[in-house]
Amino acid sequence: MLLGLVSLTFAQDAEVFVGGGVQGRGALDLSDTGGFAGNAEAEVNVAGSAGGLVFRADIDATMDYAPAFGFQDPPPDFGVNEIARPEWLMLGYNGGSWEARGGIINAGFGLEDWDDWALYLPEHGKYFGISPGRMVGSEFQWFFNDGEGPMVAIGGGYDLDYEAAVIEANVTVETDSFATWSGVAVYPEPDYQIYEAVIGAEYYPADFLTLALGGMGGMAYGSPFATGTLYGVFLPEAMVNPVVCVEGSFDPDGAQGLAPWAVHAGGAVVPLDFLKILVEGNMTGVDGGDPVPGVAFSVNVFRPEPEEEEE
């Protein structure tokens, strides 16, 4: 399918972007029973349009490292992943004010992306691992105000990460002062019965500060839950971006396995357009136990998206 997508770019008026990157990350749990776990990943991206046709393919190759002396249960970002994983493998048609697409899709939920170079800190927020994942299915989008206004979408299919059927709807709004990528998802199968609302939002009160909120809440396996991650990103356009983050969760029955709280401090160093280094120190709360300290890092070499190259 990837070869077929690339061949479309030879059509008249076609546009194509070929990108990707490599990343390496690691986390060290500084508790008495902790240890080190790491991950290396390479990704190839192909996206574009030819006439009304649109396409996107993001293919990852991943290798995880959790030595025997390390974590007994590696944290979510460093679990055992597939050797090769498509994040996107989508073909669709854009009619100007609407778009229909199918394949492997990541619906427009939440604040953070899969790729580390799109993150504020080297570890995802606690909500990321339980938010809707890669969906094999279809989605229909409406664009308002000639694409300058909100985008509303509805879709459904099979969530490859939850391994369950899903129905979802989401909205995207991007302005000079704020942006949001939020929606709702339902997993109706009897073994799941998950109903969740996902929020991702950024607010830009000044050039030197971005406030960002990622979170979700709802019902899972018959139990209520909620979690939120609030970031303060300082000097977002500078070479060094200090970041502070606080997280809190309500998961009384342990349905989602969420830590009650966490705090993070660190940031990003971006010496070149294609190089981003992320570091942090953190402290995670444990029900009935002592908080767990840790550190994490991520090094990313990548080709920026077209809109980033123009800035």
Amount of beta strand: over 45%
Give the spatial strand order of the biggest sheet.
1-2-3-4-5-6-7-8-9-10-11-12-13-14-15-16
Backbone structural class? mainly beta
Q: How big is the Rg?
A: 20 Å
Helices and strands, in N-to-C order? HEEEEEEEEEEEEEEEEH
Instruction: Please summarize the sheet with the most strands.
Output: 16 strands, antiparallel, barrel
Q: What is the helix fraction of residues, given as a range? A: under 10%
Low-confidence stretches: 1-6, 68-72
The number of strands is 16
Please describe what this structure looks like.
It is a single chain. The chain has a 16-stranded antiparallel beta barrel with strand order 1-2-3-4-5-6-7-8-9-10-11-12-13-14-15-16. It starts with a helix and ends with a helix. It has helices at residues 2-8, 306-310, and strands at residues 15-29, 36-50, 53-65, 84-94, 98-106, 134-143, 151-159, 164-174, 178-187, 194-206, 209-220, 223-234, 240-250, 261-272, 275-284, 292-303. A hairpin with a 3-residue loop joins strand 4 and strand 5. It has 311 residues and is mainly beta. The chain is built from 2 helices and 16 strands. The longest helix is centred in the N-terminal third of the chain and has 7 residues, at 2-8. The model is unreliable at 1-6 and 68-72 (pLDDT under 50).
